[in-house]
Amino acid sequence: MIEKIKALCVKHREILVYLIVGGMTTLVSWGCKFLWGAIFYPGVAHPSVGQTTVLNVVENLSGILFAYYPNRRWVFQSKNPRILEEFGGFFVSRLGTWGLSLVLNLLLTNGLNVEYHIATVLVAVVVIIGNYVISKFLIFRKKKDGEESPAETEE
Known about the structure:
With 155 residues, this protein is mainly alpha-helical. It is built from five helices and no strands. The protein has one domain (12-142).
């Protein structure tokens, strides 16, 4: 039984590590968001559009800055020597999912009147899945034999 569990962990290492790193990233970004909210918007359960936007910016920028290195190093084990280019792609892709996050947060908190802590959890599920797919298939894509990775291709 233990051998089967070990084999499953080895087989699905990338997803398991992504979930761990994603959990850590979520804690950092939510911590920053909720701390900001507690300091600047105390007692507010339904932030205004402006407050929701600021909270979302704080959440996502802190998450992006934290997430790059552990995703590069531990999740996707990137060996790409063009770190700045890779980080740029990572940053831009995360800005895209940030846009999605912002729209969903505004829709839920301001359009559907969902309490912002609950909206944050619901949006996170969508964003985590989107970030994994983009990171795996675009940013940290492993090159096949004889193929250049996207970051190594000269234009």
